[in-house]
Design a protein that fits this description.
The chain is α/β, with parallel strands linked by helices and about 300 residues long. It has a single domain, classed as 4-Layer Sandwich (Metallo-beta-lactamase, Chain A). It has ten helices and 14 strands. The strands form three sheets. It has a seven-stranded mixed beta sheet. Helix 7 runs antiparallel to helix 8. The longest helix has 21 residues. The protein starts with a strand and ends with a helix. It binds zinc ion (ZN). The site of zinc ion has 8 residues, from helix 2. Pfam families: Lactamase_B. This is Glyoxylase, beta-lactamase superfamily II.
Length: about 300
């Protein structure tokens, strides 16, 4: 049985299990003038079948568009499969670069270099992380053609006019989609009810930086929209957007204040535990680097 629920007029949330360590991902189907899927799940048969089933239930015969909030495999993985069925894929230009780099493997070389040289990650931890990277690569596929969207651009989904709000942090080019008329924010992984997304790292003008400072700016940006409801990429839609933004901000500042830098980011992340799971280590490294960048910026 597929978990599908109408969350706004002709907009349906599908909760789809994905074969990675996250809660089910939320995909949104927009029926109407331009049948659209927002976020895709991983490129796995069960996910594709579930989307087809959802379309059937709603009465969508063919998807005209796929919109992607960010390039991570649980959100964009199946985009190419839907493109082959005739849908046009829309993704933010910055995240398309990151996606390409991930699929072609450069992302791992950069991470490897950064982790060993700047974070003090020992070589012996790298194969474990590489194994996870390779497994994730199998869950996504790059479409031959995409339509790039820029921040603030509008796009129709079903009968909804959506504005792409730049919400970098988790990824460099993460976009949230705002339906101003109905006061709805499709927040992707930027705003989640039950967790704080780990901050990405990326290069800007030759410098590697944590996504944490950008993430805090993104929180301010979406708070200022005065939106009623947010529809997240995981967890349940909620009406307390502003309270959730404040709660996250406080948590991050608290974590930052509590954090006592060790000799290296790696030692802080592993806490001396050499048996730390490579997936857990990966995420911890990103949080710690984020707190340290916040400390160095705002004292
Ligand atoms: Zn996600």
């Amino acid at each position: 049985m597929i978990d599908i629920q109408e969350v706004s007029n002709n907009v349906y949330m599908l909760k789809i299990p994905v074969p990675i360590n996250v809660e089910a991902v939320n995909l949104y189907l927009f029926d109407g003038e331009i049948p659209t899927l927002l976020d895709t799940g991983t490129n796995t048969p069960e996910v594709i079948e579930a989307v087809h089933e959802g379309m059937k239930k709603v009465g969508i015969k063919r998807l005209e568009q796929v919109l992607v909030s960010h390039w991570h495999v649980d959100h964009s993985g199946a985009a190419n499969t839907f493109a082959q069925e005739g849908a046009k894929v829309f993704i933010g230009s910055r995240d398309y670069q990151e996606w390409t780099s991930f699929v072609h493997g450069q992302a791992f070389s950069s991470l490897n270099q950064w982790a060993t040289q700047e974070w003090g990650v020992p070589e012996m931890e790298i194969p474990g992380m590489l194994k996870i990277y390779k497994r994730l690569q199998y869950l996504t596929a790059l479409p031959d053609q995409v339509t790039l969207i820029e921040p603030e651009q509008t796009v129709m989904a079903g009968d909804n006019l959506l504005r792409a709000i730049p919400t970098p942090g988790h990824t460099a080019g993460h976009l949230s989609f705002y339906n101003e008329k109905d006061s709805l924010l499709f927040s992707g992984d930027m705003l989640l009810p039950d967790e704080i997304p780990y901050p990405g790292i990326w290069e800007e003008e030759g410098h590697v930086m944590s996504g944490m400072p950008s993430y805090l700016e993104s929180l301010n940006r979406i708070e200022a929209l005065q939106t009623k409801m947010y529809l997240p990429g995981h967890g349940l839609p909620s009406e307390n957007l502003i309270a959730r933004c404040q709660e996250i901000r406080e948590k991050l500042y608290h974590q930052k204040t509590k954090h006592r830098p060790a000799e290296s980011v790696y030692l802080s992340a592993s806490k001396g535990n050499q048996k730390i799971h490579p997936g857990v280590l990966f995420i911890q490294l990103h949080y710690i680097y984020g707190w340290e960048q916040l400390k160095s910026r705002v004292g």
